[in-house]
Amino acid sequence: MTAFDDLMAFQHETEALAQVAGRLAWDQETVMPRGAAAQRAEEIGALESVLHARRADPRIGAWLAAIDDSGLDPVGAAKMRHIRRTYSRAVKLPEKLSAELARVTSRAQGIWAEARAADDVAHFLPVLERVVGLKREEAAALADGGDPYDALMDDFEPDATAAETGAMFDRMRPRLVMLRERVMGGPRPAPLRGHFPEAGQMKLAHEVARHFGYDFRHGRLDKSVHPFTSGAGTDVRITTRVDEAEPFNCLYSTIHEVGHGCYEQNIDPAFALTPLGNGVSMGVHESQSRIYENQLGRSRAFTGWLFSRMQEVFGNAGAADPEAFHAAVNRVHSGFIRTEADEVHYNLHIMMRFDLERQLIGGSLDVADLEEAWNTRFAHDFGVAVDRPSNGVLQDVHWSVGLFGYFPTYALGNVYAGCLNLALRAALPDLDDQLAQGHTEGATAWLKEHVQRHGGLYPPREVIERACGFAPNEGPLLDYLDAKFGALYGV
Amino acid sequence: MTAFDDLMAFQHETEALAQVAGRLAWDQETVMPRGAAAQRAEEIGALESVLHARRADPRIGAWLAAIDDSGLDPVGAAKMRHIRRTYSRAVKLPEKLSAELARVTSRAQGIWAEARAADDVAHFLPVLERVVGLKREEAAALADGGDPYDALMDDFEPDATAAETGAMFDRMRPRLVMLRERVMGGPRPAPLRGHFPEAGQMKLAHEVARHFGYDFRHGRLDKSVHPFTSGAGTDVRITTRVDEAEPFNCLYSTIHEVGHGCYEQNIDPAFALTPLGNGVSMGVHESQSRIYENQLGRSRAFTGWLFSRMQEVFGNAGAADPEAFHAAVNRVHSGFIRTEADEVHYNLHIMMRFDLERQLIGGSLDVADLEEAWNTRFAHDFGVAVDRPSNGVLQDVHWSVGLFGYFPTYALGNVYAGCLNLALRAALPDLDDQLAQGHTEGATAWLKEHVQRHGGLYPPREVIERACGFAPNEGPLLDYLDAKFGALYGV
Predict the structure, then answer these.
(1) FRET label pair with B135: which of B145, B321, B392, B398, CA 20 to 30 Å apart?
(2) Looking at the structure, do residues A133 and A220 belong to the same domain, yes or no?
(3) Would you call B13 a catalytic residue per the annotation?
């Protein structure tokens, strides 16, 4: 056995244990008995402490020192790139800081939930202050004198920088605000009307998942409070939720998670339980969920097919005709909540959070001033005033659990989806004819071939550039949004 | 922190990881996507290797050497008893032997399944020979010059010996054979007739589980191919199976697993995630499942209530009246398969396996002669000739996976259940009146108080003796069987 073989064998076991942690999380959100939460926290804590010890195991340092990457094939070199990066992050973080972050964010999440339920910002701010302080320490430890926010973002979107991302967001924002103002100035299409029983929604959700290529031999579809995807390789599970008055919640959550799920399912099986066996970044992951959900799932062509299936399943699609149905699917509405936002508003939510959290980590914004900063920015970008904290600064769980640098990957995913959509439609000129028949396999095969199968083989921007033939940029997404909503709203 | 505190903290994490392994096993048998089996084996292997390393961790040896048990309270002393026993077993086993056993039994289980499906003993014997050889090595390593079979049994039923167990089985066997002959000589009661849809069976199974005190806030009831119980503390899950022509399969599997599940759920919460936080032995565990299933669940009183509920749920209980229903529940039938055996035949199955496996481990029986030995003994004890290997020596998975010394705990559990039933009925003279109303809480409260809450606090025989007020022995079980089946069959 060479040092490379030893390291890969060790890593294989770590990856398998990480999958186990994923199963526990899935179990907790779907099937765990209600009274098991405290014991489950102990179980997860024990497994996380095993994983933490393995990720910072000094043997890894010795193996890394003994391996000459230049002698490796591209797959071996890509594996080394991931392991070197993860290990270097692990050893930079003082054990004491990691433990304190785990302790404080676990407490902060509970306090955030209380504060949100009571609409009481003051209850949350002291612990958020503590979280931000610790994240600043973490960022400084990781940054080696570089931009501290970049160091946090790197955990979710390797090689992305706040400066580049921020510059791109600054170019996007005026066009999005303008589009929002044009669209919101005109008449509103009607939302869906009707009652759509859960059994029918879940049946249709399974059918739609199958249509989009989700493989039930290697996956499941269940219900949970918040939809999510978990697992990798041959065991990738997705969830959705059901509102009997609003079937799009179930159906488009399903299509969104199917995008994440198919990405994981379609990675080259040779990469399973290696550092290449997961989606390469949150941004690329989100590009898959978003292109499935929006550019494919919310297209006029596909919604025409869905309209017919809704009529067959529920006896009533909730709209007069396919045009009204398509308009309802894509209804732009003023709203406070990011997770309920339409395609026009969504990125504005992200850009606001990105700017605010970058200032928090950089030290130019105090936690005490966060709510005011949020409300001022919201009024400007969304044209309405935040009515209460649970609709404003308290709405997202992310900051309470220490997720700083994660939000921008949602908008990056949308940008990547815009690029991929342009390339995909150039490659498949008759795509709309296929989608109108409910056939997505042309599109999903293209995405599998050009993006998904590579897993972690190429860096995030490179995988998008290889697929599209051009460097990722915001243009295609903005053009797509202008064209789609311009036509829908006649503006 | 003292050595005792350090050891307990380490043990707490090990127990939590063992619970995680239990969740994985539950997942595999209930909800895992079909195509995930190979990856799951990797996940389980990684977690088992973490657990194995922890159980033989040399730090445990140092802590054990530093702790003076005589200064501990009874709970601390009981914890030490378990940890010293487990550690001493772990360090006696050469790493190489454990790994080889894991490798060979994993392969043997697959070969056994093929052999059983093809009714081909010769296909299985070579690998069984290898398993038996390794188990003999393991037994010799563990036995320190004592009885090797005792050393294997000790893993499932601490402190039990083959000599005592064998002597007791030899006393039981003639009375059971005689009872079988008397019962089988007379007329046979009719089995249940009807169609019992799955939805109704599962509804009734949930209801019956609740009636027997199973706590769904800390548990679940699902379907699996083979019913089982998994987990401990606040997350204890049971499964059952459904045959629409034969509802007793579902209902009595449920009640059986509820006995196991309630034992785990009712252990003193202070013992959670300590060595005292599980049922103390397989025999005591089986005593709980058996007394719930048989002495309570198959009693004339309880079946009267069940008859009414079956009528309400299915519109038809499958029998003319409560007497015929009770006779059908307790129908004694000739059969080859242990898991389908009635109360009269069940222990005969066990005793046969106990004698054969004791001879295999002791070396007085060769694997090559096993089938003949099985068939000869079966004809004698059961009065019928085995028709094919899948109904004979190939029927159980146990030996293929290296479970030697496990079978006798099933019959020990029945013996313990007989003792507990005697004591329970003395303590609750109106128990039948309660059961006739579907009320089992008097019985289950007594079992919780006298057996279940103690978890691993007392050694197995001691917990039964404390509950009953007398040393466990086979008399009460045999008297109960003679009385019950004598009355049912008029013999």
Answers:
(1) B392
(2) no
(3) no
Model confidence over A331-378: pLDDT tens digits?
999 899 999 999 999 999 999 999 999 999 999 999 999 999 999 999
Q: What is the ipTM of this complex?
A: 0.92
Domain count, chain A: 2
pLDDT of residue B491: 87
- Give the A:B interface size as CB pairs under 8 Å: 104
**Which chain B residue has its CA at the smallest distance from A46's CA?**
B13
- Domain boundary among the residues A147, A163, A197 is at A147
Task: Suggest the residue from B19, B217, B230, B238 to mutate for an interface test with chain A (most A CBs closer than 10 A).
Answer: B19
Reported as a single tens digit per residue, the pLDDT across A82-138 is 999 999 999 999 989 998 998 899 899 999 999 999 999 999 999 999 999 999 999
Scanning every residue of chain B, which has its alpha carbon at the shortest distance from the alpha carbon of A43?
B16
The per-residue pLDDT for A212 is 97
**Domain boundaries, position A102:** 3-147
Please answer yes or no on whether A46 and B233 come within 8 Å at the CB atom: no
B217: pLDDT strictly greater than 90:
yes
Can you give the three-state secondary structure of chain A, one letter per residue?
A: CCHHHHHHHHHHHHHHHHHHHHHHHHHHHHCCCHHHHHHHHHHHHHHHHHHHHHHCCHHHHHHHHHCCHHHCCHHHHHHHHHHHHHHHHHHHCCHHHHHHHHHHHHHHHHHHHHHHHHCCHHHHHHHHHHHHHHHHHHHHHHHCCCCHHHHHHCCCCCCCCHHHHHHHHHHHHHHHHHHHHHHHHCCCCCCCCCCCCHHHHHHHHHHHHHHCCCCHHHEEEEECCCCCEEEECCEEEEEECCCCCCHHHHHHHHHHHHHHHHHHHCCCHHHCCCCCCCCCCHHHHHHHHHHHHHHHCCCHHHHHHHHHHHHHHHCCCCCCCHHHHHHHHCCCCCCCCHHHCCHHHHHHHHHHHHHHHHHHHHCCCCHHHHHHHHHHHHHHHHCCCCCCHHHCCCCCCHHHHCCCCCHHHHHHHHHHHHHHHHHHHHHCCCHHHHHHCCCCHHHHHHHHHHCHHHCCCCCHHHHHHHHHCCCCCCHHHHHHHHHHHHHHHCC
Q: Average of pLDDT values for A12-35?
A: 96
Is A301 in the same domain as A154? Answer: yes
Mean pLDDT (chain A, rounded): 96
Among A15, A29, A157, A257, the one annotated catalytic: A257
Nearest residue, CB atoms, B235 vs list A19, A36, A46:
A36
pLDDT category, B188, cuts 50, 70, 90? confident
Q: Is the domain of A157 the same as that of A77?
A: no
Instruction: Examine residue B111 and state whether it is found in any structural domain, yes or no.
Output: no
Choose the final residue of a domain: A147, A176, A203.
A147
For residue A381, pLDDT beyond 80:
yes
Q: Determine which one of B257, B264, B293, B357 is catalytic.
A: B257
Pairwise CB contact (< 8 Å): B16 & A43: yes
pLDDT score at A362: 96
